[in-house]
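Q: Predict the bound structure with 2-acetamido-2-deoxy-beta-D-glucopyranose.
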Amino acid sequence: MTVKMDLTYNKLVDVEQRRQDNRKSQLYSRCAIALAGVAAVLLAAMAIHNLLSLRLSSPTPDKAFCRILPHAPSCYDPCKIVLVESMPEGLEFNSSTTHPSIFQAWLNLMNDAHSSLDIASFYWTLTNKDTHTYEPTASQGETILKKLAEVSGRLSVRIAVNAPQESQPQHDLRLLNDSGADIRTVNMKELTSGVLHTKFWIVDKKHIYIGSANMDWRSLTQVKELGAVIYNCSCLATDLGKIFEAYWLLAESTTIPSPWPSSFSTLYNKDTPMQLQLNNTPANVYLSSSPPSFCAAGRTPDLQSILSVIEDARSFIYIAVMNYLPTMEFSHPKRYWADIDTQLRKAAYERRIVVRLLISCWASTQPVMIPFLKSLASVYDPKSKLDIQVRLFVVPATPKQKEIPFARVNHNKYMVTDKIAYIGTSNWSGDYFVNTAGSALVVNQTSSKSEELTVQSQLQAVFERDWNSDYSTPLTQHSNLKHYC
Ligand SMILES: *[C@@H]1O[C@H](CO)[C@@H](O)[C@H](O)[C@H]1NC(C)=O
Ligand SMILES: *[C@@H]1O[C@H](CO)[C@@H](O)[C@H](O)[C@H]1NC(C)=O
Ligand SMILES: *[C@@H]1O[C@H](CO)[C@@H](O)[C@H](O)[C@H]1NC(C)=O
Ligand SMILES: *[C@@H]1O[C@H](CO)[C@@H](O)[C@H](O)[C@H]1NC(C)=O
Ligand SMILES: *[C@@H]1O[C@H](CO)[C@@H](O)[C@H](O)[C@H]1NC(C)=O
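A: Predicted complex:
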């Protein structure tokens, strides 16, 4: 079965290669025409430049067109993207914006799997053995674990996980190991003094899931999560596979290759994204990765992708993240880290972009986050067209739900602008971009040719639903953390 699948796969790759070669030559000729046009424009511009001493900031034609196009072949897979969410028990919105559950998406992916399943993960606790609470809402997690154990006996299941600490539960990993899964631990502490915080799945080198949910029963029923599944998309799955293979290699290693072997390189990044049809609509897509030391040639580091998405926005930037801190959260001595913060203020000031941040507030929120958020929210003055606003999202809990540790929180990690949907796995503070492993899906797709909404407008609707709900409270200069969380 596996052999047959592989042969079919290779054949597809062959056909794909020929199509890409055809397309390449088309691109080369288009490139030549584009270059001629650009050269003419440039000559005129240079004349003006010399006359008026204007500063030309546009990139050279070589960089803008021809160097990049032939190297970033298009993808002809019929890729289908679906946003997926976990809603904490009891949370209800006055909105028609709903998406399939992450639980259902994971089950479907396992049911569809014929040959392989690769999972990158932070930690595992899919049963509530960890809390001894016998929560009925742990049953979804238990179902996923059972199904995973079952497919581990049939398919190639590989799991890359952050090296667990002594105190962390090992039950799930032991069960999966005994069921036939191949498990490797990545000692991030030793490699970068960070953690492996990535959460994604690759199924049959064809379908992928990426998002905020951990392999934790709470992530299915007690924590608010957002992710995306992309079906029938070997091009993207192959590219995400390179990030997985990097973790797989590092698990056996105490040093980070530098440079990375060429098999880890990618052609797809913020400058030359993959061109593909997503839900029958053209889209430019790439995957970013952090920390920078894990990025082989061509890979856009996650921070660069966030900064470029902010810079590219023309009217609004909506951000929903659990934590937002312009600091290195875990460094000693303390370090200020304002790369993202500065970019947001710059967008609001220089280009009058509307900025909205929806940040989570719960029992474990660090108090220091609030003054920094107030500082951002103070960049608000309608007369000067400055418009940064911050709201705190609180997932309410009944007394019984309050007993569940590390639950009842909005754990989303995404950004949506007038042009881009960015779905990530990292908290937004310096550590996550400097020494912690994470990754993100960046979709550049604004106009839909089909009936269906673009993923950008679907994500915008999710943000607006949450922002306008009763679970969100505007952060003002007088807001007191204790009153909310
Ligand atoms: C998995 O099982 C093998 C024996 O089959 C054992 O040597 C290995 O340590 C186990 N790994 C984990 C992560 O439990
Ligand atoms: C993926 O492709 C298969 C085969 O063409 C098709 O049956 C299936 O419906 C597709 N899946 C999605 C989610 O579009
Ligand atoms: C999105 O695509 C457009 C053109 O297709 C490009 O000009 C823009 O830079 C892209 N934005 C990002 C953030 O990649
Ligand atoms: C995100 O930040 C919180 C608070 O610092 C931390 O507990 C958590 O491990 C981080 N990662 C996750 C699980 O999103
Ligand atoms: C939904 O609308 C009702 C009636 O206006 C309101 O009482 C309730 O709080 C709203 N819920 C949310 C989550 O916004």
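A: Residues 2-52 form the longest helix (51 residues).
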